[in-house]
Each structure stands twice: as structure tokens, then as C-alpha cells.
Write a structure and sequence with these properties.
Length: about 270
């Protein structure tokens, strides 16, 4: 099927900006509270997450009624057009709950199962990253290029942790091993923004286990279109088991260290 990626990008940019304005206003005007918990008592959802997802889903499917939709907060819909939206209405929900400025609206469009458009919008910094497959990654009109750091000891590495205490213990042990082998570690709390930081050269690499499709879809395309290899270990695809993003030379240098430290183990 022929789909205009330019049309999908324009729609994603518009809707991400609208959702970003909504969640920022709710954060500034109201006391944000936990509406429910999910996989653990610390895996929270706020009414803002839900309101953002409703806005995004309604806007996208009103504009393109035949599309499919997958959202973190449960709003899913099958489609018939071949276009499927993958959305995190607020990525970095805990940061949002605490009033930390590191959260984003993440919107990706898949065509026949392949992510072709990605938009990540930080409503606090007013930064919007975007990418169309094969056409580069962009921020504020500037084409992005990942850093060229080639050795682990010179690499600033972003990471994150899941919500399950047992998983976190294993992830923490892996990060503790890696810490002595790299420049330093950063834990920002929003995967989509971590991936955009790799695309922008603000991080040299990113590694995290347990990401959901909506955490990865848009930011993964943006990082890849900026020159990063975005994958798991041993040739695996990036996914819930593990996501690693870095320029290809650094990726290869990091891979044995990540494996030996225990990243990606169940
Ligand atoms: C978050 C991810 C982050 C991870 C957090 C959380 P959420 O997504 O973006 O990378 O470390 O634990 O999963 O839950 O805020 O949408």
C-alpha cells in the first residue's frame, strides 16, 4: 500500500504538540496524583497519562479512521489501512508525577509492521525530535548525528530499570559492573528521551532491559536515523529483552562488556 510518510509525520508532530501542551498544563495547574498502578506499586499511571492517550488516539483515528493503534494505557484498536500507531502518552511518568522535567510524548507510525515515522516531544524543554525512515533524524531543523566515541572508557552511557524489584536487583548488578568500564552512567527515566539523547550526541550509548514497544518505537527510529545501531546482543533485534543504542564501532566494543555484566539475562 502507498502511504505518505510526510502526511504521517505532519500528523504525528501536530498531535504530539497538542498532547504535550495538555500534559504540561495539567502538571502546572493541578496536583498530579496516581490514578492506578500496573506491574508493581511503583509502576504508576496518572489521569494525565490517560487524558493524553485519549487525545492522541482520538486525533489520530479521526484523521485516519482505518489505522490501528497501540497505547501504553490500554487504548488499542485494530486497523485495516496497514498503518499502526504506537504511542506512549507520557514516557517518564514517574518523572512527571514528581515534577521532574524529563518526560515526553512519544508517537510512532508503523507501515506493514515497520516503524517509518517517529516523533518524541518534551513539553518542558519544547524540544521535538523526529525521523522518517531513510530520511534522517532532526531536532530544531538540524540533522542529527550520533557521537563518534569509539571506546567504552570514553562513553557516557544512559540506562534505566524496570519496576519489578527482582529484575531491578539484577539490572543494578549489571550496571555496577559496567560503571567501572565506561566514562559514566546516566539514568534519566524516559527511554524515548534517552534514545533521542543518543541521536543528539548527549549520550554516547544507551542500554536498557524490559522496554515496551511504546518506549522504543519512536526513539529507536530517531537514534537509528542519526547513525546509531539499535539492537540487542548477539545480533538480536532491539526489544523487551534488551535495547542497546550506540554508533556501530562503540556498539561492537560495548557488546562483550554488556554480555559479561549480565545485561539481557532473563
Ligand atoms: C519508563 C521508561 C524508562 C524506564 C522506566 C519506565 P514509563 O517508561 O521510559 O526508560 O527506565 O522504568 O518504564 O513507564 O514512564 O512510560
Amino acid at each position: 500500500m502507498t502511504v505518505s510518510t510526510a502526511e504521517l509525520l505532519d500528523l504525528a508532530l501536530r498531535v504530539a504538540a497538542e498532547a504535550g501542551s495538555l500534559v504540561r498544563r495539567l502538571r502546572e495547574e493541578a496536583e498530579v496524583s496516581v490514578a492506578a498502578t500496573k506491574s508493581s506499586p511503583t509502576d504508576v499511571v496518572t489521569e494525565s497519562d490517560r487524558a493524553s492517550e485519549r487525545l492522541i488516539r482520538d486525533a489520530l483515528l479521526t484523521a485516519r479512521p482505518g489505522d490501528g493503534f497501540l497505547g501504553e494505557e490500554g487504548g488499542s484498536a485494530d486497523g485495516s489501512s496497514g498503518v499502526h500507531w504506537v504511542v506512549d502518552p507520557i514516557d517518564g511518568t514517574v518523572n512527571y508525577l514528581y515534577g521532574l522535567p524529563t518526560y515526553a510524548v512519544s508517537i510512532a507510525a508503523e507501515v506493514d509492521g515497520e516503524v517509518v515515522v517517529g516523533v518524541v516531544h518534551n513539553p518542558v524543554s519544547s524540544e521535538t525530535w523526529s525521523a522518517v525512515r531513510g530520511e534522517g533524524a532532526w531536532l530544531a531543523g538540524r540533522r542529527l548525528q550520533v557521537s563518534q566515541v569509539s571506546v567504552p572508557e570514553g562513553a557516557l552511557v544512559g540506562t534505566g530499570f524496570g519496576y519489578d524489584p527482582g529484575v531491578r536487583a539484577r539490572q543494578g548488578a549489571a550496571v555496577a559492573t559496567l560503571l567501572a568500564q565506561v566514562r559514566d552512567i546516566r539514568r534519566a527515566g524516559a527511554a524515548s528521551l534517552d534514545l533521542c539523547s543518543v541521536a543528539t550526541g548527549r549520550l554516547d550509548a544507551y542500554v536498557e532491559q524490559g522496554l515496551a514497544p511504546w518506549d522504543l518505537a519512536a526513539g529507536g527510529l530517531i537514534a537509528a536515523e542519526a547513525g546509531a545501531r539499535v539492537a540487542g546482543l548477539g545480533g538480536a533485534e532491539a526489544g523487551r529483552r534488551l535495547v542497546v543504542a550506540a554508533n556501530p564501532v562503540l556498539f561492537s566494543a560495548l557488546e562483550p562488556l554488556l554480555s559479561e555484566a549480565g545485561f539481557g539475562t532473563a
